[in-house]
């Protein structure tokens, strides 16, 4: 019912010479209402104040509207039914329209229908973001609809990259139990690279993906969204019916709720256009069977395993076995798992973390590092270097933390000891550690600049290479001092 202030505005604008159409557009009411109240200003008072089924629920509806201004009538109806409301969605829709003061836009377009299994349409929707610790990740949904039945599938992601598109389509085909003959897309960069008039150049990776399923891609004409109007409506329906008044813990929770919503609401409702349930019409659909070997649609990158035995991926670090340090591995990730491969062999698996600046570590990888340290400490060459004292031990630990090849580094350091002497090497190790420079190159540079070689000739090389590797540990002079003091006391 229009209030008296609105009636006053209708007559005021009419006296200014405004047309009824312009008044209706300005006040956001029906043109018929403007005509009615221009002819009879007291028409509102003639309406009977009959009780409405909606009266006990008006405050609840206002509360839901305050919580989510975009909430749709079917969602509100779901909440009201729980509290005993037995009315239809029409009265709820009329009341929401009254509260919002909006009117529908009427756009003329040509409707067309596809044969069962002939066509699917896809489109992306953006639905805010999800928090992970101090990080927020944007939330997207790939909506896929089978055109004949209006059967929906939704895949939520934190990305619209190429692999996310392929993963969403593959999951949709698996869910539907097959693939269509044609796939209608808009001009997204992951599908269409270039368009000149009717000539379309599709994304090579997209075509390579579709090749496995023998699907023909069809790109919509720019500025003609009605060409994929079914999926456009699907995105709007998802936004208004599913997203309203819901909360989510993470990406997995969103997807789980979405699949439940598809099974219990979206695909079993009476569709306004067809007058049938999508799940019933889908029984007439015969899709092409999926190939025996499905394509690998995971996000893939080639990354270096750093000195901390981990790779840097999507804002986080994921560990690898320590023996892979310095090697380039293939990182393959889906929304749930991050896997590391070396020469097509999987060497590590981690749960995917959507937070950022986190280290995801497998306990066995750290244990392998500890075992490696223990093994190296029992090496004869390493023991010789450690005999130089605590400085050498600390430097060895620094080399291990830096991921340096220990045996190679120790061999070079012992050569410097033979050439410049133990004292010069300890001095260089101390100075190198002060600058956190771990490596034989730094030590060699220091002793070369500041020390003179103690020996002008290299040691004699024997034919037996094992004998050349024999080294004597640095003797501790403190033991001799202790023995000398004992002899004096006697």
Q: Can you list the strand order of the major beta sheet?
A: 3-2-1-4-7
Question: What Rg do the Cα atoms give?
Answer: 37 Å
Distance between the termini: 119 Å
> Mean pLDDT score, rounded?
86
CATH level-3 fold name of the largest domain: Nucleotidyltransferase, domain 5
Structural class assignment: alpha+beta
The helix count comes to 20
Taken from the alpha-carbon principal axes, the silhouette is elongated
Looking at CATH, the homologous superfamily of the largest domain is Ribonuclease H-like superfamily/Ribonuclease H
How many separate structural domains? 4
CATH architecture of the largest domain: 2-Layer Sandwich
| Portion in beta strands | 15-25%
Low-confidence stretches: 44-48, 102-106
Share of helix, binned: 40-55%
Q: What's the count of strands? A: 14
Q: Characterize the biggest β-sheet.
A: 5 strands, mixed
Organism: Desulfosarcina ovata subsp. sediminis
Keywords: DNA recombination, DNA-binding, Transposition
Domain HTH IS21-type: 5-65
Protein name: IS21 family transposase
């Amino acid at each position: 019912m229009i209030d008296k202030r609105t009636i006053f505005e209708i007559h005021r604008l009419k006296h200014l010479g405004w047309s009824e159409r312009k008044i209706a557009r300005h006040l956001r009411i029906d043109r018929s209402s403007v005509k009615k109240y221009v002819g009879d200003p007291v028409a509102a008072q003639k309406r009977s104040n009959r009780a409405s089924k909606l009266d006990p629920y008006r405050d609840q509806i206002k509360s839901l509207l305050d919580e989510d201004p975009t909430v749709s009538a079917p969602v509100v109806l779901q909440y009201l039914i729980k509290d005993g409301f037995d009315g239809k969605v029409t009265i709820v829709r009329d009341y929401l329209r009254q509260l919002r003061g909006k009117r529908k836009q009427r756009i003329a377009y040509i409707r067309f229908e596809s044969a069962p299994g002939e066509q699917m349409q896809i489109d992306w929707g953006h639905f805010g973001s999800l928090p992970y610790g101090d990080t927020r990740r944007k939330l997207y949904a790939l909506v896929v609809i089978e055109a004949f039945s209006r059967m929906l599938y939704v895949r939520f992601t934190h990305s619209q990259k190429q692999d996310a598109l392929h993963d969403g389509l593959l999951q949709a085909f698996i869910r539907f139990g097959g693939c269509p003959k044609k796939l209608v897309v808009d001009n997204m960069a992951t599908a269409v690279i270039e368009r000149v008039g009717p000539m379309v150049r599709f994304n090579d990776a997209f075509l390579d993906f579709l090749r496995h399923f023998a699907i023909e891609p069809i790109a919509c004409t720019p500025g003609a969204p009605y060409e994929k109007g079914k999926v456009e409506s699907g995105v709007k329906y998802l936004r208004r019916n599913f997203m309203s008044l819901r909360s989510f813990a993470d990406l997995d929770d969103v997807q789980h709720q979405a699949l439940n919503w598809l099974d219990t609401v979206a695909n079993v409702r009476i569709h306004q256009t067809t007058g049938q349930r999508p799940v019933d019409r889908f029984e007439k659909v015969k899709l092409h069977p999926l190939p025996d070997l499905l394509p690998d649609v995971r996000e893939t990158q080639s990354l270096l395993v750093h000195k901390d035995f981990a790779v840097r991926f999507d804002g986080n670090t994921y560990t690898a076995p320590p023996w892979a340090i310095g090697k380039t591995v293939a990182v393959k990730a889906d929304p749930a798992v991050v896997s590391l491969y070396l020469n097509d062999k999987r060497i590590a698996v981690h749960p995917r973390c959507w937070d950022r600046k986190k280290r995801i570590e497998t306990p066995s990888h750290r244990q392998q590092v500890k075992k490696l340290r223990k093994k190296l400490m029992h090496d004869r060459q390493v023991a010789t270097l450690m005999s130089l004292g605590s400085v050498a031990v600390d430097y060895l630990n620094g080399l291990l933390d830096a991921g340096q090849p220990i045996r190679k580094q120790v061999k070079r350091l012992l050569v410097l000891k033979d050439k410049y002497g133990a004292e010069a090497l300890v001095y260089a190790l101390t100075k190198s550690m002060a600058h956190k420079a771990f490596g034989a190159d730094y030590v060699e540079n220091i002793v070369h600049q500041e020390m003179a070689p103690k020996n002008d000739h290299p040691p004699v090389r024997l034919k037996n290479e094992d004998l050349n590797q024999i080294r004597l540990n640095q003797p501790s002079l403190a033991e001799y001092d202790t023995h000398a003091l004992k002899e004096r006391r006697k």
